[in-house]
Design brief:
Layout lengths: L1 E4 L2 E4 H15 L7 E3 L8 E2 L3 E3 L6 E3 L5 E2 L2 E10 L8 H24 L4 H7 L2 E3 L22 H14 L6 E6 H8 L9 H6 L9 E4 L7 E5 L5 E16 L2 E14 L5 E3 L8
Parallel strand pairs: 3-13, 10-11
Antiparallel strand pairs: 1-2, 4-7, 5-6, 8-9, 8-14, 10-12, 12-15, 13-14
Helix pairs in contact: 1-2, 2-3
InterPro entries: ENCAP
Length: 277
């Protein structure tokens, strides 16, 4: 239903659906993860971090760090009066770009946690509670794949380490653009690229292989999602809010998310090939 204030009109349902569709199309990491908890505004997400004892004969849910604060990601939009009567095209175009930026910001936060600040700045996305976020590959973790080491072998080693630690099946890999570029190159004395072989691991990586520009250099990771090891809470999915209309329309596009790492050793960075102990 259209709302009208000072000659500004918009269809709230259509604009929100537009934002959801654009964000869904451009998110890379959310599709890898299962959703944690129920939607709905909340101050804190209740986590379920599992701790194993040394012999792994017992496990318990930690009483520490279970109240996990979501990050709020947002873009502020302003439309001048000259756009109020253009059939909503200016609003739609602005919302599309904001939804795209927030989808990318979500990926950056999932990967880097509190270290994503500079990435969000380049996207024009503001944030609240970023300092309390955990990431699956914090920017300060300085682990790289050695130059020219096989990306495929690096991923397989990560899977073997997870398997050796009891984290079997349902793997997903995330790599930097540098590693994707290497994996995409034609190899000498090989019929195809490493990337082809990586994608042939579909039975081992049903949850996917993705690349991210938010991983620097030759960084990457493999994670096991079995047993809901790593999840994403989405208390408030991407939404469009009309804040006020004066001489201009002030609009906010925002979402609340929180990465929930239930089992920390379900994430392995890609690194130099070594013998599995």
């Amino acid at each position: 239903m259209a709302n009208a204030t000072n000659d500004f009109t918009w269809n709230e349902e259509n604009v929100n659906n537009l934002a959801k569709n654009v964000a869904s199309e451009h998110r890379k990491l959310r599709p890898l993860l299962t959703l944690h908890g129920k939607p709905g505004w909340t101050t804190n997400v209740i986590g379920h971090k599992i701790i194993f004892n040394n012999t792994k004969t017992e496990q318990f849910i930690s009483v520490q760090a279970q109240n996990l604060t979501p990050v709020i990601l947002s873009c502020e939009l302003r439309l001048g009066e000259e756009h109020f009567g253009d059939d909503g095209m200016a609003l739609e175009n602005s919302v599309k770009q904001a939804a795209l930026n927030i989808a990318q910001a979500e990926d950056a936060v999932i990967l880097l946690g509190s270290e994503a600040k500079e990435k969000l700045k380049t996207l024009g996305v503001t944030h609240k509670n970023l300092e309390s976020q955990s990431g699956i590959f914090p920017n300060n973790l300085d682990v790289h794949v050695p130059k020219d080491q096989s990306v495929l072998d690096s991923i397989v080693q990560g899977m073997l380490k997870l398997e050796n630690d009891g984290r079997s099946r349902k793997y997903a890999a995330v790599v930097s653009l540098n590693l994707l570029q290497q994996a995409s190159r034609r190899r000498v004395n090989a019929p195809d690229t490493e990337l082809t072989e990586i994608r042939n691991l579909q039975d081992m990586m049903p949850n996917g292989f993705v690349q991210s520009r938010f991983l620097d250099g030759r960084k990457g990771l493999v994670m096991s999602l079995s047993g809901d090891s790593v999840q994403l809470a989405v208390p408030v999915d991407i939404s469009v809010q009309l804040k006020k209309v004066e001489e201009e329309a002030f609009i906010r596009v925002y979402e609340h998310i929180r990465l929930v790492i239930n089992i920390t050793n379900a994430i392995v960075p890609l690194q130099e090939i070594t013998e599995i102990q």
